[in-house]
């Protein structure tokens, strides 16, 4: 029976594994995966429908659609009614309870945070002061792109250091974690995955001891919107065991966690008593462009439409067929490389990433930058297997703490590398595409499962100081990346705000 198996997962198992809310169609998909192979094909649909009906009749699925009854309404159009489950609600409530605890050792003495013209505004200084002196377990800083997050966090770190606190930076990706120490927003940094790796059987206090957290630790979680609810709650649990604090920083309107239920950042922003939001946008020098980025991020349909029109009129976006946009992205990428600039191709789906990667590789082979006649290695991560040659740039897709570079750091998810050599035994010598050029030799099996050619998903561009080219779809992509323009003299590009094929090339 489906019900007992779902109850064992408390209660809706597969339907809430990757999301906080779901539709009846999601339950159908989950039920289909649980039906045994002994069910005759002729009765398969009836069996799945019966199992789904059992789920809704049991009360395991709770509707979250406003102004609807708590049960499933057959009269509603498919997909228009959304549900959640007890395990999701319990997890969120646990996060709120932990976040709203008062710490025993808050910052009690006055903290001097002085605004600096062009660096830290009065509003930013006030927000930093409120977060630093907060008595609550969790702090929340909602920070849209371009709102001065880095300068605010750097000021917060300095203030915490003055009173003896140590700031630990955590981020979903290795690149974002590295940036936290480079930008002086943390004394040390790591990925969330590395902190939690192998700790499933440990208590919260045991993990705290293992990673060295104490009541003098402040954990700053960057890009918190991309962190799963489970990870957020676990971090709060670990911090609570030693009376440490956790400050979540991010934007609920940007990317969510990949294939995991998330959204706790937005909930905590509403629940934590002294959560702050950095409302001023500083990155763009043009006042109108600052206003447009705000409209695109959280405005209604009319404001989004006006913002899209403004971007189009000012050369920020342009429309075209999917083929034209792919060609435009490749041309922009090629022009950047010819000018000696570091540039990456990114897209919003794996199929497009794969197509761009193969086209880019062909261009580099034709230009003599990649040796396609020598040994190659198999690369996973694409729609179909790719081949990597000496000179190719690749992206690793999984943290591996046993693969240590010449600089003493592990190979991490999202890092870019140049293939320097392919050994007879299948091993591959890599050189990292960053300032230190760290090297490592990895087994071919790792790359065959956890790497692909240089182009990546949209989330791979976060934290990278490079030029980016690629076709995009969706409001989240538009609001995030258009907000990274600095001024009207930036190179024009395109992004899709309203469902058209658009391409963007921001710096």
UniProtKB/TrEMBL annotation:
CDD domains: DEXSc_RecD-like. It holds the Pfam family AAA_30. This is TrwC relaxase domain-containing protein. It comes from the Bacteria. GO terms for molecular function: 5'-3' DNA helicase activity. SUPFAM superfamilies: P-loop containing nucleoside triphosphate hydrolases. The lineage of its organism: Bacteria, Bacillati, Actinomycetota, Actinomycetes, Mycobacteriales.
């Amino acid at each position: 029976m489906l019900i007992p198996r779902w109850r064992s997962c408390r209660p809706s198992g597969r339907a809430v594994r990757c999301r906080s809310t779901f539709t009846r169609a999601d339950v159908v998909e989950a039920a289909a995966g649980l039906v045994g192979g002994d069910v005759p094909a002729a009765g398969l649909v009836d069996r799945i429908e019966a199992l789904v009906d059992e789920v809704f009749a049991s009360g395991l699925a709770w509707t979250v659609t406003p102004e609807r009854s708590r049960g499933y309404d057959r009269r509603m159009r498919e997909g228009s009614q959304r549900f959640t489950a007890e395990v999701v609600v319990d997890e969120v409530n646990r996060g709120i309870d932990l976040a709203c605890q008062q710490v025993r050792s808050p910052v009690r003495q006055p903290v001097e945070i002085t605004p600096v013209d062009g660096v830290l505004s009065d509003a930013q200084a006030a927000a930093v002061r409120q977060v630093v002196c907060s008595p609550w377990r969790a702090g929340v800083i909602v920070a849209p792109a371009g709102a001065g997050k880095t300068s605010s966090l750097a000021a917060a770190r300095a203030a915490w250091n003055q009173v003896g606190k140590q700031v630990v930076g955590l981020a979903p990706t290795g690149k974002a974690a590295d940036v936290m120490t480079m930008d002086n927003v943390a004394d040390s940094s790591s990925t969330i995955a590395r902190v939690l790796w192998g700790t499933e059987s440990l208590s919260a206090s045991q993990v705290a001891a293992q990673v060295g957290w104490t009541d003098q630790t402040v954990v700053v979680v960057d890009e918190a919107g991309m962190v799963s609810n489970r990870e957020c709650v676990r971090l709060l649990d670990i911090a609570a065991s030693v009376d440490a604090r956790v400050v979540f920083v991010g934007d609920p309107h940007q990317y969510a966690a990949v294939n995991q239920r998330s959204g706790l950042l937005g909930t905590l922003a509403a629940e934590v008593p002294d959560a702050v939001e950095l409302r001023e946008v500083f990155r763009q020098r043009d006042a109108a462009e600052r206003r447009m980025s705000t409209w695109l991020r959280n405005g209604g349909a009319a404001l989004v439409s006006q913002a899209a029109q403004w971007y189009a009129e000012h050369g920020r976006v342009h429309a075209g067929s999917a083929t034209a946009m792919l060609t435009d992205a490749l041309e922009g990428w090629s022009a950047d490389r010819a000018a000696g600039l570091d540039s990456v191709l990114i897209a919003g789906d794996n199929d497009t990433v794969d197509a761009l990667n193969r086209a880019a590789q062909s261009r580099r082979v034709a230009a003599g930058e990649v040796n396609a006649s020598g040994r190659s290695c198999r690369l996973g991560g694409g729609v179909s297997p790719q081949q990597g040659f000496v000179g190719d740039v690749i992206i690793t897709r999984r943290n591996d703490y046993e693969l240590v570079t010449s600089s003493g750091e592990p190979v991490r998810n999202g890092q870019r590398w140049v293939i320097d050599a392919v050994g007879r035994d299948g091993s591959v010598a890599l050189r990292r595409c960053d300032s230190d050029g760290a090297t490592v030799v990895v087994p071919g099996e790792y790359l065959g499962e956890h790497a692909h050619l240089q182009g990546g998903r949209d989330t791979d561009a976060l934290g990278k100081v490079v030029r980016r080219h690629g076709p995009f779809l969706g409001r989240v992509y538009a609001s995030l990346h258009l907000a990274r323009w600095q001024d009207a003299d930036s190179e024009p590009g395109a992004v899709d705000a309203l469902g058209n094929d658009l391409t963007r090339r921001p710096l």
